[in-house]
Design brief:
about 70 residues, alpha+beta, four-stranded mixed beta sheet, about 30% helix
């Protein structure tokens, strides 16, 4: 089951910083879902994922963004 991080209402760089902390606590192969409303969150969280070699997907919904990171298993 994915870990959920609710970062709605937070301005960047806070969603990315909180995602970094949550991702560090996850074992390899696990999924982190970040809910965010800041329009820059997909850019910052996507960069965080790319930096770590993680799989990243951003989906827009009525409430903002659903950003999914699958932690690299290597």
């Amino acid at each position: 089951m994915p870990q959920l991080l609710d970062a709605r209402g937070l301005l960047c760089p806070l969603p990315a910083l909180k995602a970094r902390r949550a991702l560090a606590a996850l074992p390899p192969g696990e999924t982190l879902v970040v809910l965010a409303t800041d329009p820059e969150a997909p850019v910052d969280v996507g960069a965080l994922a790319a930096e770590g070699g993680h799989v990243f997907r951003a989906e827009r919904d009525a409430g903002g963004w659903r950003l999914t990171i699958v932690k690299d298993s290597g």
